[in-house]
Design brief:
about 190 residues; alpha/beta; 3-stranded antiparallel beta sheet
Length: about 190
């Protein structure tokens, strides 16, 4: 099995070196790039994960939008971290397509699990509804949220993990990669919008 590949968009040298040290200990291959080179780096060699410092200069949300709008990269899981007091940035990151938005302190605590692909935190109940069953479903399903029609809730048919993803506007299908088990699926909307 090949090692996990992670693209890191973190210009803070101290924090990037911490991510690098943890990745080396886990045998994870890292590739650091700037915000403007993220799309090209992910197209050339698609990673399992992209990590983004949401406070970085250079347009981290623009980089996320570019990754999520490109058919070749939209299924790549993106984890972004931010200062816990900046809730507007958190909401903007979710709207841009970041799959997991975490306070920097939580990101630091869960770094090894995130890099290894084992981080499966539940989505808070007040933010998203969570499917009551953790059992795998027979086929991928998607259900729109009433408050934000471009964010959809789904359960992975491979491992049963629940997730909320940004569905590309106007797209009837979505190529999705589970952040937990690593399997990929082609999803289609199950309800008219």
């Amino acid at each position: 099995m090949s090692p996990r590949r992670v693209v890191v968009l973190v210009p803070d040298v101290f924090f990037a070196s911490r991510i690098d040290a943890t990745a080396r200990a886990l045998g994870v291959t890292l590739r650091a790039t700037g915000m403007t080179g993220a799309l090209e780096a992910c197209r050339a060699e698609p990673p399992d994960l992209v990590i983004v410092d949401l406070h970085a200069k250079g347009g981290p949300l623009d980089a996320v939008r570019a990754l999520k709008s490109d058919p070749a990269t939209r299924a790549i899981a993106i984890v972004g971290f931010y200062a816990h007091v900046d809730q507007p940035l958190r909401e903007a990151a979710l709207a841009a397509g970041v799959d997991r938005v975490m306070p920097r302190s939580a990101f630091s605590t869960k770094l090894a699990e995130i890099l290894a692909g084992r981080y499966t935190a539940e989505v808070p109940q007040h933010r998203h509804r969570v499917h009551p069953s953790r059992e795998p479903m027979s086929e991928p399903t998607a259900e729109t949220r009433h408050a934000d029609p471009e964010r959809v809730r789904m359960s992975c048919p491979g491992c049963g993990r629940n997730d909320t993803v940004s569905w590309p506007a106007g797209q009837p299908t979505y190529h999705w990669k589970c952040f937990n088990c690593g399997k990929t699926f082609d999803l289609s909307r199950t309800r008219a919008h």
